[in-house]
Specification:
The protein is about 65% helix and about 15% strand. The protein contains 2 helices and 2 strands. A two-stranded antiparallel sheet has the order 1-2. The longest helix is centred in the first third of the chain and has 25 residues, at about 5-25.
Length: about 80
């Protein structure tokens, strides 16, 4: 892989990290466990969160982002 493609890939990854950081700043980290379909079990001192809907949405978004990046790099 030539160095110019590695540079582009690093820039894209950096931009993705910045966007994720901004989302966490805006929502304050209260994204996980809040969607319908997310399972939360709380018993006494024990809390278990299974963010099924959140992980499904993140998986779809990351798949789209990776596909777009790979198509841009393969021009």
């Amino acid at each position: 892989m030539p160095y110019d493609q590695i540079g582009k890939l690093l820039v894209v990854f950096g931009a993705v990290i910045v966007v994720v950081g901004i989302v966490f700043l805006i929502f304050g980290g209260n994204i996980v466990g809040r969607l319908p379909g997310d399972i939360t079990l709380a018993r006494g001192n024990f809390t278990c969160i299974a963010p099924l809907a959140t992980m499904l949405i993140l998986s779809i978004l990351l798949t789209i982002i990776v596909n777009v990046v790979l198509r841009l790099l393969n021009r």
